[in-house]
Amino acid sequence: MPNASAYVPRGVIPAVLLPFDNDLTIDETSFRKHLRDISATPGISAITVNAHSTEVASCTSDEQRRVLDIAGDEVGERIPIVNGIWADGSLEAARIARMAGQSGASALLVFPPAPFALGQSPEMALAHFRRIADATDLPLIVFQYPLATGQGYPKDTLLRLCHEVPSICAIKDWIGNVPHHEWHIRTLQNLPRPVHVLTTHSSWLFSSLVLGCNGLLSGSGSVIPDLQAQLFKAVQTDNLAEARRLNDRIEPLARCFYAEPWANMHNRMKEALMLLGRLPRAVVRPPLVKLGSAEVARVRQALVESGLIDKMTNSTAA
């Protein structure tokens, strides 16, 4: 297992999917293969489990532990694992943090508590993160939601978190506002103790990366980790011609995956992996439901447009 205390989240971090059998139990065999496929991708720096992409809201605490244990067993010796903390209360969040540390996670992605949607104060946010930080020495990633949700942290609150909770080392930026996103990059990455901005603006990834993010953490990396890694490298090396070429391949998939309703984004990604022959089925847990044939056809068309499926033979492209 990589040394968690030395790990600083940055670079390309795919958030993997969680396959299910038809009876809605975890398909461990397919999950292990998926983990091996993603972790073998050149240029990625870590993987994320127990997040939106693994349908964490529908997983029990025992299942979340099992997901992390499988990931550690399958790829933990080769690549850091970021574990999500999905909890409405700070005590439960701290329990998950302790569990993840004991189970070999290298960092924690902290989702905002649902009650914050009803209104939050800086003191609430600080109390939540301090409770988690007191439970573990793992580095913390703040999941920054759009402010309109009520769960995003205003600028002053976010700065206080970064200053007063030393284990915060990155944010997963889903602010959804370009000037605010740029403020994150310019401000947080230039603090005396820099906090990396990991974009999750996957529907406009190229534009986001060009602003100067130090990484990306994205569910679509479960389908195109190679294209994301190549895009990140091209931007980092100022090879914008190559970056635009890669973005032209990514754009059809981004347009498809992140169409309304957004709740279906990872549902569509599972269908994509099934069409690519990387998953045996595309089962999701309720309240998500199986996509209809018309939407599955749109997923297939996006794969064709991106060059991942050959239009004439229905086979995966080289």
TrEMBL record:
Keywords: Lyase. GO terms for molecular function: 4-hydroxy-tetrahydrodipicolinate synthase activity. InterPro entries: Aldolase_TIM (IPR013785), DapA-like (IPR002220). The keyword Transcription does not apply. SUPFAM superfamilies: Aldolase. Belongs to the DapA family. PANTHER family: DIHYDRODIPICOLINATE SYNTHASE. This is 4-hydroxy-tetrahydrodipicolinate synthase. It comes from Bradyrhizobium erythrophlei.
